[in-house]
Amino acid sequence: MPVPHEPRRIRFGVNYTPSQGWFHHWLDFDPDAVRADLDALAALGLDHVRVFPLWPLFQPNRTLIRPRAVEHLVQLADAAAERGLDVAVDGLQGHLSSFDFLPAWTQTWHRRNLFTDPKVLAGQEEYLRTLAAALADRPHFLGMTLGNEVNQFADAPHPDPDRITGAQAAAWLTRMLAACERGAPGRAHLHAAYDAAWYQDGHPFTPAHAARLGALTAVHSWVFNGTAQRHGPTGVATEQHAAYLIELSKAWALDPHRPVWLQEVGAPAPHVPEDRAARFTTATVANALDCPDVWGVTWWCAYDVSRSLADFPELEYGLGLLTEDRVVKPVGRALAEAVARWRESPHRPSVRSTALVVDAGDVEEAPHRSVCAPGGPVFEAWARLAAQGARPTLVLSQLATDARHLTARGITDVYTPEEVAPR
Questions:
Q1: Is the terminal CB of the chain with fewer CB neighbours within 10 Å at N or C?
Q2: By the 8 A CB rule, do 237 and 404 touch?
């Protein structure tokens, strides 16, 4: 029998993109505007927000962390708490919506590797520790995420990557997580990668890093990665992409019940057309909640990006639950209804007893992890099983015959991708 465990409370939240000025709002922080934003988000029935200080604004010099900027972050967190919203904070911003925000002391004339240079590491450590410490006495503070998809700085397709090895990535993650713990002991500190960690051969941030380091595993699900292009906006693989990433993470997890946070997911047009965004939202949330051990779902994002701001990719402008005028959109109503349904009638998902084998090579490096990517044999076989109603999970090839591991996870049936290939 599987190891028994208690069901967890499911958390529902949103990545807070301010309605006025996007993340540039930190330049002229307006507490009243923030409070109005948070009022509208709380009205949707959400229970937390993920917030994004801009690293260059908070730490413009390696030895200067601006007290006033930190004070603004605490003000935002306190305003959220007044509205019943817990707060998760990302530190090293890092990369947001196609724009990089790196301090001048890491660039051009001061160019230093973000992951290995001793002076940069010391500056990052102190910055993360400082932010965590500023919120450590707030009971509504959930914890730190090291940064938003910081792994994109380490490899292609970034135009100017800071190349590192997998071992160097692990050392950086371990050191930065420890800095967060020093600042706010006992909180849920974690790291978050975009899906290259799961899908891109040779990427230095690996599935093992994602599933084993930090308090919980974060997955970011975006179907413009080839999923929607291949399967369409209403395809099973598209509507279950988030569920697939949640289950894929379990293949590498050492704890069979490690919590998984669907930390980013959104309905990107035109891959998900505007008139189908509400359906996509409803289906994505329902499918994610059908995965055991989900910590929570945090939608991207709160408010649409204003058309007055230039040079964003087109899909970034319309991802909000609300317009920039704080009008709830169909996708916002769909999420609010999904939250209400869950709270009215929560359920504990049954064990996923059918597993698909993942052979990505060495467990730590996963040199062939592209088999898991859209179009790859593991991804496509999983989608076929899901379409048949099998509720599949995934297991590493190295563990596919390990009776103790399979029993701990409740797995009774194991298939290779070849065994579920189309005839």
A1: C
A2: no
Q: Structure pTM?
A: 0.97
Report pLDDT digits (tens) over 368-418: 999 999 999 999 999 999 999 999 999 999 999 999 999 999 999 999 999
* 155: its two tokens: 């490899």
- Are 87 and 79 in contact by the 8 Å Cβ rule? The answer is no
Instruction: Report the chain's mean pLDDT, rounded to a whole number.
Output: 96
Say how many C-beta atoms besides its own lie within 10 A of residue 422's C-beta.
6
Are residue 108 and residue 237 in the same domain, yes or no?
A: yes
> Tell me, what's the pLDDT at 423?
65
Range of the domain at 102: 11-344
| Residues 6+ positions from 238 with CB-CB distance below 8 Å | 223, 227, 228, 231, 232, 272, 280
CB distance 169 to 202 below 8 Å: no
Check whether residue 222 and residue 191 sit in a common domain.
yes
- Where residue 158 sits, what CATH number does that domain have? 3.20.20.80
Q: Residue 131 is which amino acid?
A: L
